[in-house]
Design goal:
The protein is of the alpha+beta class. It is globular and about 65 Å long.
């Protein structure tokens, strides 16, 4: 039997899945690594930790299936988007990688907008200049660390740094490259106009491939270390959200995914270049060849709930997520007038504001920990509904929502999503996230599947449906209308506090 590997280089760790020729997940493994926040608004990682985690996860997933490395037909890569890994002429890492949720580049974003023009930038790349994207990080390095900038010979996205070590090839895929702010969305290749305006050498950037395309073969020394055959094809893969969409079957119009992980994502497939003229939504290439997608991003989703738990652990070291969820579930919908804005690390959709800050609004002496926990969870889903409402206004069809990420593993999170969105939420038989999608793309590249549609048909199955409760949905629509006014009312105060 042939097998496929998918490797997801996430923010908190690497995850590997082993999939058989029928698209079924046979084994999974994870390896954690640390996140560094050396200054307020900064978020970095050491690429050496990625490499360690990637190898640990790949070895472990093969061991869990009886050491089946010899039967692996291909490996697909996915991972956190937007990060900047700066390499010198010998492909040595110059400094810690700057991640997707880093907010230091506001001045660089303003410079990009000035040089390219706000409307022109969205017309070419599908997006405005946002702090998380890769291009502003390059300009930040030029302005703030000129000695490091002078050494740069290559800039890679996180998963593509792992690809370089696995294969010796510098390559990326269209979906991940679309998050650099340097890609011409319609051409599915870098925009020379944007590169020239920003004075970024094209030679620094890897070749762009479609998701299922083979980008190279596994180096013999690395293959021996991992227990795989030399030359195993490594396909382009996709950014984590695009790969997760493949793994959850979001490869046709009308099917939308709602992913609650560290960040929150609403993802909608499109057969044509999808653009929000105001830039509130991301317009990206899909990992499906020739396809596109719209994406709304909430920077602190499950991350906001983790922040609450971690903060409370200072006084209750044994506090578990399950306890907080139980307290939230025992609290009435709407948390009796308590709302939470989850802007703990700034916000993307729809505010595009790195200086946005979190807030509880409506707090009274009556409110307990259960109210606060429920308000955090509801606030996360309200923030995600912001993106869904913009998609609806742009005419995006929404016939089915598929839940992925941590928010698909909790009955309470599922009920919240169905009730707040007012749409039935589907769960999958094997929700293994981006790594599963990367493995399915690898199957297309290896010829096990004719195309992505066949890979999804064979490998993705719906397991259950959570229907919205009409009364709770009505209540949440009322709460959402109030929530939508929090940011406009507090924006000036948030910005003043950032400068204090």
């Amino acid at each position: 039997m042939s097998y496929l590997l998918g490797l997801d280089l996430g923010t908190s760790g690497a995850r590997a899945v082993l999939v058989d020729a029928g698209g079924r997940v046979r084994a999974t493994a994870t390896a954690e690594y640390p996140l560094s926040q050396p200054r307020p608004l900064w978020s970095e990682q050491d690429p050496a930790d990625w490499w360690r985690g990637a190898r640990e996860a790949l070895r472990a997933v093969l061991a869990r299936n009886g050491g089946s490395g010899a039967a692996v037909a291909a490996l697909g890569l996915t991972g956190q988007m937007h990060g900047a890994t700066f390499l010198d002429a010998a492909d040595r890492v110059i400094r810690p990688a700057i991640l997707w949720n880093d907010q230091r580049t506001a001045a660089a974003c303003a410079e990009i907008t000035r040089r390219v023009g706000a409307e022109r930038l969205v017309a070419i790349t599908g997006n405005p200049a946002l702090t998380g994207f890769q291009a502003p990080k390059i300009l930040w390095l030029r302005a703030e660390e000129p000695a490091n900038y002078a050494r740069v010979a290559r800039v890679l996205l996180p998963k593509d740094y792992i690809r370089l070590l696995l294969t010796g090839e510098a390559a990326t895929d269209a979906s991940d490259a679309a998050g650099t702010l340097l890609l011409d969305l319609r051409a599915r290749d870098y925009s020379q106009e944007v590169l020239d305006a920003l004075e970024i050498p094209r030679a620094w950037l890897p070749r762009v491939h479609e998701g299922p395309e083979v980008t190279g073969g596994l180096r013999p020394d690395i293959a021996a270390d991992l227990g795989l055959p030399a030359g195993v094809p490594v396909v382009a893969g996709g950014g984590d959200n695009a790969a997760a969409a493949v793994g959850s079957g979001v490869v046709r119009a009308g099917v939308v995914s709602s992913s609650i992980g560290t960040s929150g994502v609403i993802f909608a497939h499109s057969d044509t270049p999808a653009l929000d003229p105001q830039g509130r939504l991301h317009g990206f290439c899909h990992a499906v060849p020739g396809a596109y997608h719209l994406m709304a991003v909430v920077l602190s989703a499950g991350g906001a709930f983790q922040w609450l738990r971690d903060t409370l652990r200072a006084i209750a070291p044994d506090l578990r997520y399950e306890r907080l969820v139980a307290l939230a579930a025992a609290t009435p919908p709407g948390a009796e007038g308590l709302l939470f804005a989850p802007y703990l690390t700034g916000e993307r959709t729809p505010h595009l504001d790195p200086l946005a800050r979190g807030a509880w609004v409506g707090l009274t002496s009556r409110h307990s920990l259960g109210h606060m926990a429920r308000a955090v969870m509801e606030g996360v889903v309200f923030a995600m509904r912001d993106g869904l409402e913009i998609m609806r206004a742009l005419g995006t069809p929404i016939t089915e929502i598929r839940a992925t990420g941590g928010g698909a593993k909790s009955a309470f999170w599922l009920r919240l999503q169905a009730d707040v969105y007012g749409v039935a939420v589907h769960t999958l038989a094997a929700e293994e996230g981006p790594a599963h999608g990367a493995a399915l793309l690898a199957g297309v590249g290896a010829g096990l599947f004719a195309d992505v549609a066949e890979a999804v048909h064979r490998g993705v199955r719906v397991a259950g449906v959570t229907e919205p409760d009409p009364e709770r949905a009505r209540r949440y629509s009322e709460c959402y209308a109030v929530y939508a006014g929090i940011y406009p009312a507090l924006r000036e105060t948030m910005h003043r506090l950032t400068g204090s």
